[in-house]
Design a protein that fits this description.
alpha+beta, single chain, four-stranded antiparallel beta sheet
Amino acid sequence: MNTETRGIQEFKELAEKSSKIFSSRRQTVIDYNAIEDKAEVQIEYEAILAVDLPNGLNSGDKILQLKGKSIFGLNEGKISLIEDYS
C-alpha cells in the first residue's frame, strides 16, 4: 500500500489514524547516513495489531522484524520531506 501526504495537517491525520491500528509498536534505528541535504535512516519495526486487517492479519498478531528505511529531506535546517520504505 502506498500513501502520500502533503503538509503538516495531512501528516498529523495519517499518524493519528495509524496509531489506532496498533496496540503497541517499536522502531529501532540500526544505521543512518547523511548525504548532502538528505538523511537516510535504517529501521527495524515491531508492532502488535489492535484491529483485524483485510490481508488476513488479526488483532493481537505480532509483526516482527519488519525492516525499512526512512529518508528525510532537509531544507534550511527543517525537515521538508519524509519517505518511508519497507
